[in-house]
Backbone:
């Protein structure tokens, strides 16, 4: 190791992170447990607990979206990792390209497709079928989540799969393992770090979204993100109660990540980078 | 893989690509439609004309670029300094504490980041504006710079630095002659990632921008109104721009790789 004497160079960063990352998160806790006058109270938490059904619905939709992402991304990442090197590079670029487009525009694209007078329904009516109710359904919200976040599942899965030693798969075959046995005993355990980081990278933004549910879900699919947005910038303005709701969301996210990180901590961190 | 397996996986890849690109292509096609709505009524460039005479969009584009430039420069300076500092620390506990704090903004939901900063700014009586927006953007950009520079420092060959010292460089000169060139790729990657994160951000900006309109915020207010064909035109332009940038970067990296291979061959 080179010996540098530059500890001081990190001090501005440390100050910055304390001021603008740690302190704001502590402020959420402070606001969650105080009322408007600054006195300690549990009222906000109690009020936030009344929104539990909204939270449960968010977790439910985000979980479905995460599972769908995993089921579709897994074989895709596997197929990608078996392509020739130059094709792999091209596919990685193709998967990342939509991600680089503003995600509001991507969600708007689905709005355009699913709307009552949208592309799909115009096509249906033009061939003489009756239009379908597509937008403002839970299905549309899940679809929006899957579409926006599936690259976050594909890329970590793909990056662990390229590292799987092909000779291990061949050895399993030589030793008499069939397709499913090879998958279950060799490929799946080796790709676990990718599954874990992909799952957290899809679930966390999905459970806390307010844009996707707002644009594709309508009034019936009001999620925890929409609630927090309304409490901070919308018509149910209440910073204290909003902080309590956010705290609730944070706890859910932390629990999810703790569960997944217990499964495999160091490898997941590697795949995330 | 068997031949049948290859065809099957080819079909699967094609279907997934269709899913990823169909919505974007629909937007592109309808950006050239002559009427509002989603039935084809003939070719026109009207929505592009409307888009470019829309002053709100143009001024938001300028705001977005100002914020992204400022936030990525500040993040690069802070993040590179942090990587150098942490690299020279010997105290394991302090190192780990800093790393854990670094993961915080990357792992917490964006909406929580956004509202926590909003609370801070309202607590400090700093109303939304360029300052708060740039502070917020630096806060979520700086960890990526830190994490892309740190591994480069670890990879430096210790002998090179010592050789520079043996050959008469003082530590400062050795630092600029050996360490800076070695970590440069990490700094550049970090800077570019910070810049794109900042450009692309909506959620954090939404809660901290106050009255400053960035492109994402303007798009959000347009998108809420449903069918607005200028958005289709904007999507098309952005898609083509991103496509061009990625193509240039990819072609360059492939060329660089080939050049490196040739060099290796000669050696």
Residues:
């Amino acid at each position: 190791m080179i010996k540098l004497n530059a500890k001081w160079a990190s001090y501005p960063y440390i100050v910055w992170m304390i001021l603008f990352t740690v302190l704001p998160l502590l402020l959420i806790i402070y606001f969650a447990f105080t009322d408007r006058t600054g006195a300690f109270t549990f009222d906000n938490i109690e009020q936030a607990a009344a929104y539990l059904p909204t939270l449960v619905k968010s977790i439910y939709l985000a979980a479905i979206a995460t599972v769908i992402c995993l089921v579709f991304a897994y074989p895709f990442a596997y197929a990608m990792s078996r392509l020739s090197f130059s094709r792999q590079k091209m596919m990685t670029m193709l998967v990342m390209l939509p991600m680089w487009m503003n995600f509001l525009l991507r969600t708007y694209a689905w709005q355009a497709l699913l709307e009552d007078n949208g592309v799909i329904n115009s096509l249906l009516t033009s061939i003489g079928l009756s239009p379908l109710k597509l937008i403002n359904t839970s299905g549309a919200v899940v679809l929006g989540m899957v579409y926006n976040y599936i690259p976050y599942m594909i890329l970590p899965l793909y990056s662990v799969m390229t590292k799987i030693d092909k000779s291990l798969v061949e050895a399993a075959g030589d030793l008499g393992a069939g397709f499913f046995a090879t998958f279950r005993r060799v490929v799946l355990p080796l790709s676990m770090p990718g599954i874990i980081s992909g799952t957290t990278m899809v679930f966390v933004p999905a459970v806390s979204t307010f844009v996707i549910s707002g644009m594709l879900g309508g009034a019936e699919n009001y999620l925890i993100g929409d609630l927090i947005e309304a409490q901070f910038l919308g018509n149910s303005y209440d910073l204290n109660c909003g902080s309590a709701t956010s705290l609730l969301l944070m706890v859910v996210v932390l629990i999810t990540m703790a569960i997944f990180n217990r499964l495999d901590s160091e490898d997941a961190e590697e795949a995330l980078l | 893989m068997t031949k049948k397996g290859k065809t099957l996986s080819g079909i699967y890849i094609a279907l997934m690509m269709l899913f990823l690109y169909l919505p974007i292509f629909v937007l592109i096609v309808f950006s050239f439609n002559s009427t509002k709505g989603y039935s084809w009524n003939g070719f026109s460039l009207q929505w592009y004309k409307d888009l470019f005479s829309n002053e709100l969009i143009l001024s938001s584009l300028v705001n977005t670029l100002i914020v992204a430039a400022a936030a990525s420069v500040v993040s690069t300076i802070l993040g590179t300094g942090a990587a150098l500092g942490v690299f020279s620390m010997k105290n394991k506990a302090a190192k780990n504490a800093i790393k854990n704090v670094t993961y915080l903004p990357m792992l917490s939901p964006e909406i929580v980041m956004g509202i926590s900063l909003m609370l801070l700014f309202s607590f400090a009586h700093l109303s939304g504006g360029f300052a708060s927006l740039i502070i917020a953007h630096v806060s979520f950009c700086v960890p990526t710079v830190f994490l892309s520079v740190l591994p480069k420092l670890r990879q430096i060959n210790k002998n090179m630095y010592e050789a520079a010292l043996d050959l008469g460089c003082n530590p400062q000169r050795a630092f600029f002659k050996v360490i800076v060139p070695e970590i440069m790729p990490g700094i550049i990657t970090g800077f570019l990632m910070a810049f794109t994160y900042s450009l692309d951000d909506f959620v954090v900006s939404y809660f901290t921008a106050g009255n400053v309109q960035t492109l994402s915020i303007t798009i959000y207010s347009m998108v809420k109104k449903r069918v607005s064909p200028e958005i289709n035109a904007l999507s098309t332009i952005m898609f083509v721009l991103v496509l061009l940038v990625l193509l240039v970067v990819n072609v360059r990296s492939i060329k660089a790789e080939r050049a490196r291979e040739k060099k290796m061959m000669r050696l």
Remarks:
- Residues 229-267 of chain B form one domain.
- The first helix of chain B runs from residue 3 to 30.
- Chain B touches chain A through 89 residues (CB under 8 Å).
